[in-house]
Write a structure and sequence with these properties.
Blueprint: H1 4-17, E1 21-23, E2 35-37, H2 39-58, E3 63-66, H3 75-79, H4 82-85, E4 87-92, E5 99-101, H5 102-128, H6 134-140, H7 142-163, H8 167-176, E6 193-196, E7 200-202, E8 212-214, H9 220-224, H10 227-233, E9 240-249, E10 264-274, H11 279-295, E11 304-308, E12 318-326, E13 329-338, H12 342-351, E14 357-359, E15 364-366, E16 369-376, H13 377-388, E17 389-393, E18 399-403, E19 414-418, H14 425-436, E20 442-444, H15 450-460, E21 464-468, H16 472-475, E22 477-482, E23 488-492, H17 496-503
Parallel strand pairs: 3-9, 19-20, 19-21
Antiparallel strand pairs: 1-2, 4-5, 4-6, 7-8, 9-10, 10-16, 11-12, 12-13, 13-16, 14-15, 17-18, 21-22, 22-23
Helix pairs in contact: 2-13, 5-7, 5-8, 7-8
Bound molecules: glycyl-adenosine-5'-phosphate (GAP).
C-alpha cells in the first residue's frame, strides 16, 4: 500500500463497508471517539474476548473470572488515586482554539525524528541489499547519530518534566522544539493544565444532594474490591488470579486514530495475587506469557516489542508495555504492571475492612502483591484487523482484497455457496448449512457469480468456502476453497464437519 496514511484509511473504510465498525450515532453526524461494532465486528470482537477468556480462565486452574458493575462506590476512585491523579496535561492553541495533550505533541515530534531515521535505514537497505547491517549503520551513520542524539535529549527533558509534574517545563519544551498547531500553524500556546479523565454522573433521581459517581476508567478496581469475596467463596490459594472483561470510560481529549483511543472501550484485565517478595519473578513470568499469547495468533514477532517503563507510577515497582506495529507506528497494546500491595492496602484504609490473606504454609497474614495484565479489546481488534487486511495481485494480474484473520477469530468459519440458483442446488446447500450451523458460524450466499462471492468472503475473512455444484447431487461431495492459498479440493459431505474442526482449532496458550 502507498503509505501508512493510505493503509490506515483503507482499514477504516473497509471496517465500515463490510459491517465491522460504524461511527456511533452516525445519522446525527457521529459522537467523537465513540464507535459501534456492526454485525461482523461483533463476531470478531466476541471471538477475541473468547480467546483471551479461554487462555486466562479456562486453561488456568488458579485463575477465575468475574463481572463487576460499572458503577462503584465513589470512595473507590479516591482510594485508587484516580480522583487526584488520573490526569492528562493539556495545552490550547490560542489562534485555532484547539486543545492538545502536551505529552502527545512532544511524542509526535519525537516520532517525526524517528521517521527520518527509518527513512535513512530504508534507503541504505535498498543500496546495500543482503550485506546491510542495521546495527552497524545505526552506530556509524552521521545523520542517524545526529537525529538519535536529538531524540535522546528531548526524551530526557520530557521524562524529567513528567517525573517532577513540571507543567511549565512541558510548555517550555514545546516552545523550544518549535512545535506548531497543525490547524493554525502558529506557536501561540496557553499554559499547560491538568485535566481529569473520569466521566462523572449523578446517582439517584434528584441531582441535588445526590452522590457524584464515576464511570469506571479501568475494570481493575472491580477486581480489587472483590478480592476477599472471590478468595473466600472460591477457596483460592495464593498464587491465584481474578480476570475480568468489561467496559471502561475515559474522557480522552486527543481522541483519534479510530478505535485506538476511544472514550468508551473494553478492557481484558487480570490481577494475579502473589506472596510479597515473589512479585518480580511473577512479573517476568506474565511478561513472557502475554507475548506468547499474542504470537500464538500467528502474527510475526517483528510486529511486537516490549517497552519497559522508566518512569514508574507511584504504586508500581516494574512495568512494561507490549507495543504493536499499528498502521501509524508502534504503540501500546497491552500493559503488564507489578502494582505491589498498593491497591489492596489503600482499599483497606479507605473502607476500614482488612483485605489480607492467611497463608497456611507460612502461617502468616499478609497483604498480597499484585501483577496486572491489562489489554484493550478494541486495540487487539485493530491490531488483528489491520495486520490481516491486504491487497493482493494474483497470478492472472487481477487484484483481490483479503482479510487473512486467524481462522478461529474470523466472523464466519465457512460460507455455503450453491454454484447456481436452480437444479436443486440451493436446497442441497441449505441442507449442508443446517448440518454445520450448530458447530460453526456459517453464511449462506447464492447471489452473483461464484468468483464475486469468493471475493466477498475473502474481504470479510471467511477461511473456507464450500461450493455445491451439480456433481454434488450424485457424488455427495463439495469443493472446499481455502481463503489464503485459494486452493480447492473435493471432499465428501460426510467429512465436512471433521475437516472444519481439524482446520479451525482453538488456539491453546496457557
Ligand atoms: N488497569 C490498568 C490500566 O487501565 P492502561 O495502560 O491505562 O492500564 C490498559 O490501559 C489497556 O487498555 C491499554 O494497553 C489499551 O489497550 C487499553 N486502553 C486504554 N485506554 C484506551 C482508550 N482510550 N481506548 C481504547 N483502549 C484503551
Amino acid at each position: 500500500m502507498a503509505n501508512q496514511e493510505d493503509a490506515f484509511k483503507k482499514v477504516v473504510s473497509h471496517a465500515k463497508e463490510y459491517g465491522f465498525i460504524f461511527p456511533s450515532s452516525e445519522i446525527y453526524d457521529g459522537l467523537g471517539a465513540v464507535y459501534d461494532y456492526g454485525q461482523l465486528g461483533t463476531e470478531l470482537k466476541n471471538n477475541i474476548k473468547q480467546y483471551w477468556w479461554k487462555s486466562m480462565v479456562q486453561y488456568h486452574e488458579n485463575i477465575v473470572g468475574i463481572d463487576s458493575a460499572i458503577f462503584m462506590h465513589p470512595k473507590i476512585w479516591k482510594a485508587s488515586g484516580h480522583v487526584d491523579a488520573f490526569n492528562d496535561p493539556l495545552i490550547d492553541n490560542k489562534d485555532s482554539k484547539k486543545r492538545y495533550r502536551a505529552d502527545v505533541l512532544i511524542e509526535d515530534h519525537i516520532a517525526k525524528i524517528e521517521e527520518k531515521i527509518n527513512k535513512e535505514i530504508e534507503k541504505a537497505k535498498k543500496r546495500f541489499g543482503e550485506a546491510f547491517d542495521e546495527a552497524q549503520f545505526r552506530a556509524t551513520n552521521a545523520r542517524v547519530l545526529e537525529n538519535q542524539a536529538k531524540i535522546d535529549e528531548i526524551t530526557n527533558r520530557f521524562s524529567e518534566c513528567l517525573n517532577a509534574n513540571d507543567l511549565e517545563g512541558l510548555r517550555q519544551l514545546i516552545i523550544d522544539l518549535e512545535i506548531a498547531c497543525p490547524i493554525s500553524g502558529t506557536r501561540n500556546w496557553t499554559e499547560v493544565r491538568q485535566f481529569n479523565l473520569m466521566f462523572a454522573t449523578q446517582m439517584g433521581s434528584v441531582s441535588e444532594g445526590s452522590d457524584t459517581i464515576y464511570l469506571r476508567p479501568e475494570t481493575a478496581q472491580g477486581i480489587f474490591v472483590n478480592f476477599l469475596n472471590v478468595q473466600k467463596s472460591g477457596r483460592m490459594k495464593i498464587p491465584f488470579g481474578i480476570a475480568q472483561i468489561g467496559k471502561a470510560f475515559r474522557n480522552e481529549i486527543v481522541a483519534r486514530q479510530f478505535i485506538f483511543r476511544m472514550r468508551e472501550f473494553e478492557q481484558m484485565e487480570m490481577q494475579f495475587f502473589v506472596r510479597p517478595g515473589t512479585e518480580l519473578e511473577w512479573f517476568k513470568h506474565w511478561k513472557e506469557e502475554r507475548l506468547r499469547w499474542h504470537l500464538a495468533l500467528g502474527i510475526p514477532a517483528e510486529n511486537y516489542r516490549y517497552h519497559d517503563h522508566e518512569k514508574l507510577a507511584h504504586y508500581a515497582n516494574a512495568a512494561t508495555d507490549i507495543e504493536f506495529k499499528f498502521p501509524f507506528g508502534f504503540k501500546e497494546l497491552e500493559g503488564i504492571h507489578s502494582r505491589t500491595n498498593f491497591d489492596l492496602t489503600r482499599h483497606s484504609e479507605f473502607s476500614g475492612k482488612k483485605l489480607q490473606y492467611f497463608d497456611a504454609e507460612l502461617n502468616e497474614n499478609y497483604t498480597p502483591y499484585v501483577i496486572e495484565t491489562s489489554i484493550g479489546v478494541d486495540r487487539t481488534f485493530l491490531a488483528v484487523f489491520s495486520h490481516a487486511l491486504k491487497d493482493e495481485v494474483l497470478e492472472d494480474g487481477s487484484t483481490r482484497t483479503v482479510l487473512s484473520l486467524p481462522a478461529v477469530l474470523a466472523p464466519y468459519k465457512a460460507a455455503i455457496l450453491p454454484l447456481v440458483k436452480k437444479d436443486g442446488l440451493p436446497e442441497k446447500a441449505r441442507e449442508i448449512m443446517d448440518m454445520l450451523k450448530y458447530d460453526f458460524m456459517m453464511q449462506y450466499d447464492e447471489k452473483d457469480a461464484i468468483g464475486r462471492r469468493y471475493r466477498r468472503q475473502d474481504a470479510i475473512g471467511t477461511p473456507y468456502c464450500i461450493t455445491v455444484d451439480n456433481d454434488t447431487l450424485t457424488d455427495n461431495s463439495v469443493t472446499i476453497r481455502e481463503r489464503d492459498t485459494m486452493k480447492q479440493e473435493r471432499i465428501s459431505i460426510d467429512n465436512l464437519r471433521a475437516y472444519l474442526h481439524e482446520h479451525i482449532q482453538p488456539i491453546k496458550v496457557d
